Amino acid sequence: MPTDEKAKSKLPSAVSTEESVLRLEDGRQIVIWHSRPQSEEPVRGTVLLAPGFCARMYSLAAMAAYLCANGFAVYRYDPLDHRGPSSGELADFTMTTGRYSMDQVLDWLARERGVESLGVIATSLSARIAYRVASERDNVAYLVTAVGVTHLRATLERVFGVDHMASPPEQLPETVVFEERHHIRTLGFATDAHELGWNPAETTRAELDRASVPIVAFIARDDDWVLESEVEEALDLANHPERRMCKLEGSGHNLAKNPRIAQAMLRELTGAVMALETGGEWLRAGLPPSFPAIEREPTFEMLTAQVIAERRRSVR
Amino acid sequence: MSRATSIPQPAGADQPPNEAEAQSPSVRIIDARTAIDELIFAEDPWYALPLERQRELSDALIRQALREHLERCPSYRDYYARSGAAEPGAVALADIPLVSTRVFKFADLRSVEAHEVERWYRSSGTSGQPSRVPRDRASLERMVGSVHGSVGLLADWDEDEVAVINLGPGREHVEDVWFQYVMSLIEALYRSESRVPRDEAALDEIIGLAQSLLDDYEHLIVVGPPFHVLDLCEHMQRRGVELQAGEGATILTAGGWKRFGGRAIPKQEFRAVVARQFGLRGEGQVRDVFNQVELNTVLFECEAHEKHVPPWVHVAARDPETLQPVPEGEEGMLSYLDASCSAYPCFIVTEDVGVVRRGRCACGREGTRVDVLRRLESRAAKGCALKMGQIHANG
Amino acid sequence: MATKTKTLPSVVCGTVVRSAPAGHHTSTTVTGHELRVPLLAMSDVDTILADGPRDRLAELPTQEIVNFLYAAGQNWKSSEYVRRRLYIRELINQLGYSPEMAKLEANWIAMILSGYAGLYDIIASELGHRFILDEWIPREEAQVRAYPKGRSLHIMPGNVPFSAVVSVVRALVTKNQVIAKSSSEDPFTPVALAQSFADVDADHPVTRALSVVYWPAGAPGEAGERIVAASDVICAWGGQSAVDWARKAARPDAEVVRFGPKRSLAFVDAGERPEDAARGLAHDVCFRDQRACFSSQQAFVRPSPAQLVPALSEALDNYTEILPPSAQGFDDRGARALTLAEARFLGFSCWEAKDGSWAIIHCPPSFAAQHPLSRTVYLHDWPADLDPGAQVTGDTQTVALFPWAKLRPIRDAVCRAGVSRVVESGMSNVFRPGGAHDGMFPLQRMVRFASTELPSAYVTKVMTVKIEQTKFLEQDRFVEFIP
């Protein structure tokens, strides 16, 4: 059985965060952060944040702060074979490793924290994983994605400028370089993507057809990697009143690049989570015309303090 | 949460761009774009823009900022009206009424509601009345954006590759002194260690830290006021330490010599001393940045040691009597029209004397550069007449 | 851009030294010329600190010093005196003085040096007796005599030549050797003064007692530090930094005499004679372009500032004619422009001369802008309930009043609050013998008093018998003599 260790942190940030280490049977470990509102009010709900490919947990500091400020308990984790403190190297990442990591964390939350139902907020590549997880697990109550990938192969082609997935294994380069710095081994990733059906848009659509959870998908209208039409196609909004797309004008794939847009997105996302958390069954009949306004907004100072505190924790 | 801000809805959030989308309950358009943020946070650096485009942007952004401040800041609106300046669409940038930076010493100037002010920041002078300047979230984010957007003038670093030694107090100790606050924000961008080189032991520790970070990281940035950097170099010299940083370090000065003006040495000499002591590959790795509490944008030096001014800031050197711009290349009192600031009208004339140049820089980039030469020093300061500022300094 | 280079000599114990073994300090004058001043060299210090120059002056009778100064002053009085003409020319060409102002400075030098009666009066009023530096003067049951402290260092003010001369004269009449550390703003006055002494008698002890040296502000170097360490008195004039430096650098037992920085202001009731009120205020504003600590910077005005403005504008214009302002450098003009920008931002009424020679700002006293000087006057309302004492502090030197007779009662309130000098408006620059300077009588700070006291044979006022202390103790009679 996997075991977990807990270490309380003293982050001088706006939210209270503690770190847990989930030890897997194979000896590897997944690091999980749990941030809670500092207010004495009862927690409104629990959400799990999954970082995008190559992103660290602290890249989700602002999102965690917004959610905590509005009453949510927030868990974040670093997948295996990823860039953060969990076991493995980024170069070895596969979609299935990402899926396994998310599953492990969801199981751990149910087992160790008694979280039977929760919302999942997934960014970019992890959204593709979350779509599958949401279609196969019962304890995901709702899903929110941000610039979520629905057509993996097309997105990868745009990212690398080459459709490596079309290459026979023997012709694949040993590694590809992501964002000019991060080397990723191709063979394992491509084999996994082919064999387990991660690549095509159709499998995403099929999985989402099976999924019954409410979904709110944020897309960026100037996103070069994830196209609006792909997400629309996957979500099939016309037949799913419990789903919504929020389109961010003026943003590319990096939603944090422009803080005005990021702030608007975080407000909307938090409002969406507030609605989804309280919605229950009736949400399946359709999402409300607009999400509630958030109740509290972290200040710049709070956000900066949290980012710095989490960065310190990561470096340590 | 101990504090909450008001939550205005994002501009354009309820204004879908097309009717079909507007009618669909499944789609929500969120439009929080502003021209100034699109420029500051653009993917492509502003300094890659042609000069003419920079001018156009500057003109449009500053006029937009002017309109906003006239709407939101009653004291500036009244001043503007009294000045007889033409309406914002027609006024020449040179004729936009300027606020003397000394006004911030005794007047609270703001264009946002009190609860939107994140904090009032103050100047770091050790004597006299400090300036107090408000900043809201957008202004602070844009200030950070000005750093992000200009750091490419130094190099293209990945955050994981860089460690920073900040020769100043760390995040926990900075409070509201703007210079220290800005320096401490570096920790939000890079792995940072803050140390005040207050004594020999601290200097020894900093040297050890520098050595260790040079070993562990691809690049080390040491940032601090020039007198602290000089302290460090002199200490290294006394200890017989010469680091071998090669291309692996950048020494960044900021904040000027302040009360240590007596120790100031010519810039070239300073760079040579620092480059020698750190074992840098070249003096181009010793750079300076400029900011002051009343200015929202941080100005970075390029490899030719020229401070480039982004297009959301209009800088001019002005005649000391008429406050009209002097011809390019001539010394004048520096003024800035900074469109990045939403918290107060950042249309300021300062006590700095400098030179403004436009066109192609020796580094190859086009744009506006400013050379801050010195502070204004009235001859009166050397007479026995007491100036008013001193009266207040004395209590 | 510098157009000409002027190199000044230093003066070492009365001898003009044109070599500069320690190099020169170079600056640019307000008129754009390059000015080179020799830096103090170790060899100069050896000469200056030799005993001769100090001791020879100490042995000189006061009247001989006064007579010598008078002789120098008479030269300065003559418009044909070449030193005077050169001095005036330098003030105009290098320091940007108007010809009228430069001439006035030369006249004041002549006045100070030639005013022998005034010098005796000052000695008498400040030290107690005209001959106290030469003789034992009976004083109650003692005889007292004043001795020079010894070596005096003068950190000279920038731009107030008058003060430099006053500082030197005070030290000389108290028989102190003088080392004048010039200001980079005005290195001319001390040198011209020293040269004019040599013109009278190159080997006179007064001439030999005066040295004029230079080091950059706050950076005396090893040579300067030796001077500072050997100085028994340091007279620090000028801005706060000069005064602070002197305090820090002085030997613990040395006397540091601080002049400035101070401000001065006026109370003006212009209800009856606005033209006279304006004329007095204009004089106090324009004299030395407000660079002196006695210059009025602010005025509290009745019945209202706005009513005084027309007459004051006219009076200031008149002073522009009769005593044109000195050239304003970049920084002075900039300081004025910033102040006006601040005032306008805050909605205060501002008036400026067409040629920029003066400015009036009607503002509350709380207006905390740096005062730019340069003939800028702040006018404040003077409501009936205003407490004049609350408008001044220990930093306020001179309060000028108009009309004198009517307002003189204000003096109690302002002096209690820290003011050291109350004068009639228009008389701020005239320091009357007997008056206090910055709350003190400076000659007292330049000397050491010694007393010889009466022997036991003399009875005291409270005892009618001879003082026989042993006997009193033996008989336990001490208490009988307590009045």
From TrEMBL, chain B:
<dbReference type="GO" id="GO:0008218">
    <property type="term" value="P:bioluminescence"/>
</dbReference>
<protein>
    <submittedName>
        <fullName>LuxE, long-chain-fatty-acid ligase</fullName>
    </submittedName>
</protein>
<dbReference type="GO" id="GO:0047474">
    <property type="term" value="F:long-chain fatty acid--protein ligase activity"/>
</dbReference>
<dbReference type="InterPro" id="IPR007534">
    <property type="entry name" value="LuxE"/>
</dbReference>
<feature type="domain" description="Acyl-protein synthetase LuxE">
    <location>
        <begin position="32"/>
        <end position="390"/>
    </location>
</feature>
<dbReference type="Pfam" id="PF04443">
    <property type="entry name" value="LuxE"/>
</dbReference>
<feature type="region of interest" description="Disordered">
    <location>
        <begin position="1"/>
        <end position="25"/>
    </location>
</feature>
<dbReference type="InterPro" id="IPR042099">
    <property type="entry name" value="ANL_N_sf"/>
</dbReference>
<keyword id="KW-0436">Ligase</keyword>
UniProtKB/TrEMBL annotation, chain C:
<protein>
    <recommendedName>
        <fullName>Acyl-CoA reductase</fullName>
        <ecNumber>1.2.1.50</ecNumber>
    </recommendedName>
</protein>
<dbReference type="InterPro" id="IPR016162">
    <property type="entry name" value="Ald_DH_N"/>
</dbReference>
<dbReference type="Pfam" id="PF05893">
    <property type="entry name" value="LuxC"/>
</dbReference>
<dbReference type="GO" id="GO:0050062">
    <property type="term" value="F:long-chain-fatty-acyl-CoA reductase activity"/>
</dbReference>
<dbReference type="GO" id="GO:0008218">
    <property type="term" value="P:bioluminescence"/>
</dbReference>
<comment type="similarity">
    <text>Belongs to the LuxC family.</text>
</comment>
<keyword id="KW-0521">NADP</keyword>
<keyword id="KW-0455">Luminescence</keyword>
<dbReference type="InterPro" id="IPR008670">
    <property type="entry name" value="CoA_reduct_LuxC"/>
</dbReference>
<comment type="pathway">
    <text>Lipid metabolism; fatty acid reduction for biolumincescence.</text>
</comment>
<comment type="function">
    <text>LuxC is the fatty acid reductase enzyme responsible for synthesis of the aldehyde substrate for the luminescent reaction catalyzed by luciferase.</text>
</comment>
<keyword id="KW-0560">Oxidoreductase</keyword>
<dbReference type="GO" id="GO:0003995">
    <property type="term" value="F:acyl-CoA dehydrogenase activity"/>
</dbReference>
<dbReference type="InterPro" id="IPR016161">
    <property type="entry name" value="Ald_DH/histidinol_DH"/>
</dbReference>
